[in-house]
Amino acid sequence: MGNVIFNKLPNHIAFILDGNGRWAKKLGLSRTSGHLKGINTLKNIIKEVKNLGIKYMSVYCFSVENFDRPKEEVDFLMDKAYTEFKKIDLKKIDFNIRIIGERTRLDSKMLEAIDQVNSTSFIEDRFTLFVAFNYSSQLEIVNAAKEMKSRKLAFTKENFEKCLYTYPAPFIDLLVRTSHEQRLSNFMLYQASYAELYFPKTLWPAFTKKCLYRALEEYQNRDRRFGKL
Length: 229
Ligand code: IPE
Ligand code: IPE
Ligand code: MG
Hints:
Layout: E1 12-16, H1 20-26, H2 31-52, E2 56-63, H3 71-87, E3 96-100, H4 108-118, E4 128-135, H5 137-150, H6 157-162, E5 174-177, E6 196-198, H7 209-220
Parallel strand pairs: 1-2, 1-5, 2-4, 3-4, 5-6
Helix pairs in contact: 1-2, 2-3, 3-4
The site of one 3-methylbut-3-enyl trihydrogen diphosphate has 11 residues, from strand 2.
């Protein structure tokens, strides 16, 4: 498909999945239908990324700020997330998965489901998925600082990075945000320091394998200089 160079893939790809509501509105559907379709899209894209052999994938599914949406929408999203977390077959799962974010405002049932998922083994050399849920990059950074203090670690860059939720994953190479909103909305500000940013117009529920390959092509055409010449 397209001109993707398979030996030049990003190590870590991240998605801010945006546009579920607008996708539904365009079709005269409820916002919740957009979220349902968005979950399907996410499952497909996880499969595609994993099949490509990309090692790390992060997805922004619910932000701390999303709690400020109308209660019905928050309740719906919580309900769906809980069902999806519970559906994961913890004995059969063949990749690493970590649900990362704040624990505040999540009920005990949800926390238990998250803890169960996060208790699965983390095996090096296999695909790793980070699901950012009730996530805030600013709070992750504050928490990392607190943790350095409580673990009595010297305040170095290396130690700080050890306290981030995504440790020991490498930082993001390619960050895709759908729906053409060109902002990070408090997502992995530290980990995205040198990420290539890509903002396709496609709304998340309509994001396909073809869109993924287009994003990878775009990434491969970028000149990553890291400050050098
Ligand atoms: C992304 O879609 C999903 C979440 C943030 C939970 P939105 O719900 O933000 O959709 P739009 O931006 O309103 O279209
Ligand atoms: C960012 O999307 C959060 C997630 C994708 C989970 P939003 O739709 O909440 O972001 P803003 O409000 O447009 O910045
Ligand atoms: Mg949005």
